[in-house]
Amino acid sequence: MRSNNIKFVYSYMRQYVGVWIAGILLTILASFIQIKYSWLIQQLIDDALLPKKFELLLRLCIQFFALVIICSLLSFIKEWCFNYVSQKTIIKMRTDLFLHLIKLPYSFFVKNDEGEIINKIINDVKNTQDAFSDYIISLLTSIITSAFIVIWLFIVNWKLTILFLAIVPIFCLVTNKIWKIINKLGHKNSELTGELTGFLQEVISSVIIIKMSGGTYFINKLKEICELLAENVIKLRMSSAFNNSLWESILTPYQAIYYLIGGYWYIKYGTPSIGTMLVFVNLVGILIPNTLTILDSISGMANGVASLERIRELLNCKEEESGELQLDLQDDITIKFDNVGFKFDDSNFEIKNFNLILKQGDFLTIVGQTGSGKSTILKLLVRLYDVDKGEITINGINIKNYRLADLRKHFGFLQQDMYIVKGSIKDNILLEDNSITDEQIKNAICMAKLDDFINHNLQGIFTVIGERGKTLSGGEKQRLSLARMLAGGLNKIVIMDEPTSALDIETEREILKEIAPMLKQRIAIAIDHRLATLNMATKIIVMKKGMIIEEGTYEELMKKGGEFHELVNTKYTKGIQ
After folding, report:
1. Where are the alpha helices (DSSP H) in 105-157?
2. Among candidates 488, 440, 441, 490, which has minimal Cα distance to 463?
3. What gap in Å lies between CA 107 and CA 332, rounded to an integer?
4. What angle do CA 283, 286, 288 make, to 5 degrees?
């Protein structure tokens, strides 16, 4: 593991290092007691059983029983120490990862696949957790235990120890190549698991399309991924099984050789004793699995370190730049787009020479064909993207100079794609502000024309809706989203992206009539293809290819007979958003 990775992990576990050291000390003590078992076994055979000394046998058995209890207790406490530290570390790491993720630029989520991001949060964090909990515990325990065993073996009989350790180089050579294969297959397994996770997420979010189309494409794709994963898993497990079987096939006949040589020495020279030979066999029986565990743990740690480096790569992604000024919108508001320009990295589309001034009380409606740049303008205003040229100011100050969180809290959003959480209607309304009272919720529900739906459910605002609002119709989702925005009394700047597209015409008119008075002391910006907000608009702009081609009131634009006149007369039957 590289030093910077060690420093990174240590920065998370630093406050728990005392507990971790306690776990190490308990591991050393438990390993020492485990060696003491073997010492007692030798005494039981050589000093008690063979000479037929029952009192000594009884005393040694009591000692043996006491050591077993003590060792079990120490091992339990040791496991708690290590797991406590690892879980606390992982909780902090996962929290930091999430907090960092939500601070990344919007462009990051546009450029990166959702499945890949989720795979890093779930699988990579899990692999890191396994590496710094299960594998590191196994590695440390096995190394300490193996070291004690080897030292004890040399102290008791160095000749037999050399005889046993002669097999270790053979073991290392044989298993080294196999473990490289296993490690490679393990990485492949992680990649395929991540691909399957991303695919399943895509399937669940597209369930309606799958049902309507029969899902042939998705079924075939699932079979393809699962077959590749199954093939890789089989190779991985068979490689591990082959490695274990190969070692057993080497160790078993080697034991016969050991007994032959050790027995010859005992018959001819009277040493080593029978107890010593049996203890050697017992300890080597412990040493070999420990050696296997060390190799397995190193492989698992390597996989965990690879995941850790992917997590660090994500944590190193540059967060959104935030200003330092506080935005106070208690007084009048003026928003100015001054010669704004913006271009996507991987597209020819760009916003060019965009100039616009909005003041408190203005209601701006943006119209234009699909891809004209309407939604991009709104994203620039809330700094999901930053302008490449010119500037956007609020009350004369560039929005880049305001603190991001402070800037965005002054915006109220009503979007075409409503975000609905799994919970009650009240949970969804309180999503952005837990201080909202039940009276405010009731008024918001009434204004959003959601009261009929509430009254038809026995649990009222505590009615639980499905994940992503699956139990709601499109219109109910939109009214719920509107109620969420209205409950807090509206923000100073209201952005509506096709706010009533899922509602019937009559409900749409009633809702807009209700909220119209609330918008007079604010700046409202709407993208609307159903003409509903045009009568409320104090200003309308028509966009085409990233530029404003027409600007004015409804009457002024209709008199011009230009692009806006054509859009209204065709009622946007040409695919306008």
Report:
1. 106-111, 114-119, 125-130, 136-156
2. 441
3. 32
4. 110
Cβ(563)–Cβ(544) below 8 Å: yes
CA angle 93, 405, 484 (to 5 degrees): 100
Sign of CA dihedral 433, 435, 441, 447: negative
C-alpha–C-alpha distance, residues 134 and 142, integer Å: 12
Residue whose entry in the numeric block shows the structure tokens 């230009």: 562
CA gap 100, 94 in Å, rounded: 10
CA distance 155 to 132: 34
Helices and strands in the chain: count of H runs, count of E runs = 21, 12
Whether the CB-CB separation of 267 and 261 falls below 8 Å is answered with: no
Q: Pick from 353, 342, 357: which is nearest to 387 by CA?
A: 342
Kindly give the pairing relationship between strand 547-552 and strand 539-544.
antiparallel
Distances (CA, A) of 140 to 278, 291, 306, 331, 482: 27, 12, 20, 64, 57
pLDDT above 70 for 532: no
Whether the per-residue pLDDT at 572 is higher than 50: the answer is: no
d(CA 235, CA 245): 15
CB atoms within 10 A of CB 508: 20
Q: By C-alpha distance, which of 252, 310, 348 is closest to 121?
A: 310
Exposed/middle/buried for 380, CB within 10 Å: 0-12, 13-18, 19+?
buried
* Distance from C-alpha of 318 to C-alpha of 104, rounded to nearest angstrom: 7
- The pTM score is 0.69
Environment class of residue 482 by beta-carbon count within 10 Å: exposed (0-12), middle (13-18) or buried (19+)? buried
Give the C-alpha separation, 293 to 146, whole Å. 11
In whole angstroms, give the CA distance from residue 366 to residue 557: 13
Q: Hey, how many other C-beta atoms are within 10 angstroms of the C-beta on 327?
A: 19
Q: What are phi and psi of 325, to 5 degrees?
A: -80, 145
- pLDDT at position 388 is 92
CB atoms within 10 A of CB 570: 10
Identity of residue 86 = S
Give the list of residues 6+ apart from residue 419 with CB closer than 8 angstroms, or none. 431, 481
pLDDT of 523 > 80? The answer is: yes
Q: What is the pLDDT of residue 573?
A: 41
Q: Note the Cα 458 to chain centre separation in Å.
A: 37
Dump strand ranges (E) for 478-562.
493-497, 523-527, 539-544, 547-552
